[in-house]
Amino acid sequence: MSGQAETSIRPRAPHGADLGRLRERFALAFADGADGLVDAAEREVRGVTLDSRDVRAGDLYAALPGERRHGAEFAAQARERGAAAILTDPAGAELLREAGTGLPVLVSEDPRGILGEVSAEIYGTAGIDAAVFGVTGTNGKTSVVYLLAELLRAAGLRAGLSSTAERRVGDTAMTSGLTSPEAPELHALLARMREERAEAIALEVSAHAVVRHRIDGVRFDVVAFNNFSQDHLDDFGDMESYFQAKLALFAPEHARRGVVVVDSAHGRRVARESRIPVTTLATEYGAEADWHLAVTAQDIDGVAFALQGPGGARFRGRVPVFGRFMAENAALALIMLHEAGIGFERIAAGLEGTDRQGGLIPVYIPGRLEAINPSGSGPRFYVDYGHTPGSFAAMLDALAEVAEGRVIFMFGADGDRDTSKRAEMGRIAATGSDILIVCDYHPRSEDPAAIRAQLLAGARAAGRAELYEEGDPRAAVRLAISLARPGDVILYAGPGHEDYQEVEGRKLPYSARDEVRAALREAGLL
Ligand SMILES: CC(=O)N[C@H]1[C@@H](OP(=O)(O)OP(=O)(O)OC[C@H]2O[C@@H](n3ccc(=O)[nH]c3=O)[C@H](O)[C@@H]2O)O[C@H](CO)[C@@H](O)[C@@H]1O[C@H](C)C(=O)N[C@@H](C)C(=O)N[C@H](CCC(=O)O)C(=O)O
Ligand SMILES: Nc1ncnc2c1ncn2[C@@H]1O[C@H](COP(=O)(O)OP(=O)(O)OP(=O)(O)O)[C@@H](O)[C@H]1O
């Protein structure tokens, strides 16, 4: 790879497929001119990507039509980086014919639609010999994936994971670009996990991933749905389309069985309309469900719970992160494992620090309610990735139950993304906090002051919290600390694990966790 930084995890020993085989299996045609290439059908591709910047020698470059550009426009870069062939649609073939790449070009009417299966063929991942778990829902997918990985570790199983925060396989970890990788990246990851002898794999599945064919070619053993609330309306247009995208995961072409939290009407709908067998979880006492969860104790340091299910299945455990919803996330992960035949006794035996509340699940979820100064006498500062009205409500409700002092909440909103959720974010934030600081998040191409004004308008309508506006997040962090008293809790929602701030198309280095650490140090609180 001639000194270029790797942008995705690939298998060490590629599997490969020849173009003749791909042409036959996917009913592809060679574009005009490619038949003339001496070895077109025999040529082997060893990897696949849809991003010209990620091409490695011997790859098939999938040149797909995008919202802004056509991938065929980047064919020259793909070729320069060593692509062995191109897969595209008729429009792409036309662009390539004009430009002339000298590479064999395979044409499909719907290249995105077949890319998952094509990737599975190239990486040999169709029948991967590991239990594959998928998690969908609006909030908490990353948390459930990390809980799954931790519980699998306790059960003595080697696990790989893919989440919004990172992709992890064996000792290799890489920051994620998307919540759910595009199909070529996903299958490369699965192939690498196989090489690392992963026995189980936990994947976060976004609604985008389902409708954009990112998970095609993968058959999940167990999928789970946790909750549903407003997000991504910029992409899906309305809540029903967003819901349908998630519901589509519960189909035999994607998964064998499912676990569904039925606390909400949307959850009950998934349970009713699922096309695969599902088992259900309720957290409300007396609600109709196969599994029931009860929170047995909680404070700012974590939550203890008892889970009961069919056939006398029981589990008592603790999670070192506050909030009832974290108990729910843990319960969901436990039931998924149970459904895959991984018994509770086996998991419990691998947990340390068992007391009468059960075993401690020592999960670390990067940037999710992450306590930057977990002990000490000053105010406690948490950094979180929540960026939906639903996640704000869950966190602030949880804090109302466990915080001893005041709640100081700071957040900003994404530019160029679902603008319709902003007023509601402001309203919920101002309802659930004592002091609210509105700052900038990723303004992207929008005017940051205008985004703040929309958030503040929502906050003012709620009228509870004392309001502050400080665009610069670094200054806002310091403002929050200066306003806090011992016993108060500061919660900074939005950036979570991220290490950049996106402004006008540029990613500027910014880590909320590092910034908070530095500011706490300056204030003598760390
Ligand atoms: C709306 C959406 O999903 N957009 C995705 C889409 O972009 P696009 O169609 O606009 O692509 P484009 O920029 O027009 O480029 C066309 C093609 O040229 C390729 N290209 C482009 C530039 C280049 O130099 N070389 C190159 O090969 C691109 O890979 C693409 O295939 O295809 C790109 C390539 O795969 C994705 O990176 C991009 O995701 C963007 C970054 C994104 O932010 N997506 C979000 C909305 C998303 O998918 N989010 C979900 C949910 C998150 C959650 O719930 O938290 C997720 O799973 O992450
Ligand atoms: N079960 C839950 N219900 C509601 N909110 C939750 C739940 N679990 C976590 N959250 C809140 O949502 C935030 C985001 O959590 P997490 O990153 O796990 O969700 P996600 O679905 O993976 O989101 P994304 O795909 O955007 O990363 C958390 O930091 C927490 O504030």
Automatic annotation (TrEMBL):
Keywords: ATP-binding, Cell cycle, Cell division, Cell shape, Cell wall biogenesis/degradation, Cytoplasm, Ligase, Magnesium, Nucleotide-binding, Peptidoglycan synthesis. ATP binds at residues 137-143. Pathway: Cell wall biogenesis; peptidoglycan biosynthesis. Residues 135-336 form the Mur ligase central domain. Residues 367-495 form the Mur ligase C-terminal domain. Gene3D superfamilies: Mur ligase, C-terminal domain, Mur-like, catalytic domain, MurE/MurF, N-terminal domain. One of its GO terms (cellular component) is cytoplasm. Its main location: cytoplasm. One of its GO terms (molecular function) is ATP binding. The modification N6-carboxylysine is found at residue 246. Its cofactor is Mg(2+). SUPFAM superfamilies: MurD-like peptide ligases, catalytic domain (SSF53623), MurD-like peptide ligases, peptide-binding domain (SSF53244), MurE/MurF N-terminal domain (SSF63418). Carboxylation is probably crucial for Mg(2+) binding and, consequently, for the gamma-phosphate positioning of ATP. The keyword ATP-binding applies. InterPro entries: Mur-like_cat_sf, Mur_ligase_C, Mur_ligase_C_dom_sf, Mur_ligase_cen, Mur_ligase_N, MurE/MurF_N, UDP-N-AcMur-Glu-dNH2Pim_ligase. UDP-N-acetyl-alpha-D-muramoyl-L-alanyl-D-glutamate binds at residues 50, 52, 206, 214. It comes from the Bacteria. GO terms for biological process: cell division; cell wall organization; peptidoglycan biosynthetic process; regulation of cell shape. Its EC number is 6.3.2.-. It is found in: Cytoplasm. Belongs to the MurCDEF family. MurE subfamily. Catalyzes the addition of an amino acid to the nucleotide precursor UDP-N-acetylmuramoyl-L-alanyl-D-glutamate (UMAG) in the biosynthesis of bacterial cell-wall peptidoglycan. This is UDP-N-acetylmuramyl-tripeptide synthetase.
